[in-house]
Write a structure and sequence with these properties.
alpha/beta, 409 residues, 14 strands, twelve-stranded mixed beta sheet, elongated
Length: 409
């Protein structure tokens, strides 16, 4: 699944929570003290929510699945609805409340078995005027048998059970505003075996864990070994740690807007990376990126790069084509662009710096500077050899050596 999948999926979906809102509107002033948490845990309330969903999905579910197969989009539930479905499936009761079968839970289960893109959208704070927190209810994903894409937002991954059942089918996973540790998502409980011996997610190609509170990349990251695109932007990372080395298929990594200030030895972890986004961090020197020989795109905008010298190592990246340095103090240097292009030597004409290729004037300036630099190097080399010959003659005259080296005369 391509990196543009998120843009292809529509953010709008059917509102299937009408029952819940209707119940709230009918609450009288005198009953507002009764919490929704108590009511939703009662069988009656669970049935009410699920029955309403089943009626709606029985009516529009098939059509929605058909159209989404042509134009992919997410179907959206709330955590409360997912909780009610999970709770209802645990009740040993008939699938429908009456003989009409309009509210047959089979409609909901069939839909969940077949839906390919599912979004669960919670919210911050409390539900309406109740004291129930939006993301406080547990629910399971074990009945989602055909999911290719899952999007969780404003929830709590600790409340989501059986996520691991998706590991052999899901291709795209998006978690926003819902996670502090990646292991909270990938593990239901502490594993009885080492992480290295656990089954990996064999189909996942793209993982978007941006806009969370992740502070470190724990060992469970290695379970995502097939991931090609990983977005960890807008978290609280200070370093990437050692575990990304197990993501051997990873070619695109977004670490923008974290708290990273050092990129030392990243080539040992990100061997095959092609696109690296580091915007909005605290990086001063990029020496640690000098051996990322597959790198084609590097975004360093809004960091702390102040000198051309601190970016000299980028000239050793043979595949680099795009470099973004906007928002760094280095841009205030006189003739910054020409000096930055000079870092890349003969490849200057191939580099797109801050969204622009070098113009004719800049390339001429680079050629002149490179020629002057080469002339200076040749002069220094010639002077070095002259001094060596003089030293050799002095050693010969003083008797330290029996003969002169060729070329020392």
């Amino acid at each position: 699944m391509s990196t543009n999948t998120l843009n292809n999926f529509k953010r709008t979906a059917y509102d299937v929570s009408g029952c819940l809102h209707k119940k709230k509107r009918k609450m009288k002033e005198g009953k507002m003290k009764e919490t929704l948490l108590v009511k939703i845990k009662e069988k009656k309330e669970v049935h009410s929510i699920v029955d309403d969903l089943s009626i709606r999905l029985g009516s529009v579910g098939e059509e929605w699945l058909t159209t989404s197969a042509v134009s992919p989009k997410y179907f959206e539930f709330t955590p409360i609805e997912m909780f009610a479905i999970t709770k209802r499936l645990g009740l040993a009761e008939p699938t429908a409340p009456d003989s009409k079968m309009a509210a047959d839970i089979g409609n909901t289960i069939d839909f969940l078995h077949r839906v390919r893109a599912l979004k669960v959208r919670g919210a911050k704070g409390y539900v309406g005027s109740s004291n129930i927190v939006w993301n406080s209810l547990e629910f399971s994903l074990q009945f989602c048998k055909s999911l290719l894409a899952l999007w969780i937002t404003d929830s709590d991954v600790l409340r989501i059970k059986s996520v691991w059942t998706l590991k052999d089918s899901i291709r795209r996973l998006v978690i926003h505003y819902s996670m502090k540790q990646i292991k909270d998502l990938l593990l239901d409980e502490e594993p009885p075996i080492p992480i290295s011996e656990m089954e990996a997610w064999t189909s996942l190609e793209e993982a978007d864990f941006s806009f969370n509170e992740v502070e470190e990349l724990d060992e469970t990251v290695r379970l995502l070994g097939k991931v090609q695109v990983l977005n960890l932007s807008h978290n609280s990372l200070k370093d990437i740690g050692p575990h990304l080395q197990h993501l051997t298929n990873l070619t695109e990594l977004n670490l923008s807007h974290n708290s990273i200030n050092c990129v030392k030895d990243w080539n040992l972890v990100l061997g095959n990376i092609k696109k690296l986004t580091l915007a909005g961090n605290q990086i001063e020197n990029v020496e640690g990126l000098s051996k990322l020989y597959s790198l084609e795109y590097l975004d360093l905008k809004e960091n702390k790069i102040e000198t051309i010298e601190s970016m000299q190592s980028l000239g050793r990246l043979p595949c680099l084509e795009v470099l973004i340095l906007r928002g760094n103090l280095v841009r205030k240097i006189v003739d910054y662009r020409s000096k930055a292009f000079e870092v890349f030597g003969d490849r200057a004409k191939e580099i797109q710096l801050d969204s622009r290729l070098a113009d004719a004037r800049e390339l001429d300036t680079v050629r002149v500077r490179l020629a002057l630099k080469q002339a200076k190097l040749e002069k220094e080399e010639k002077e070095r050899k002259r001094r060596e010959r003089i030293k050799e003659r002095v050693r010969y005259i003083s008797g330290e050596v029996d003969s002169l080296k060729p070329g020392s005369l």
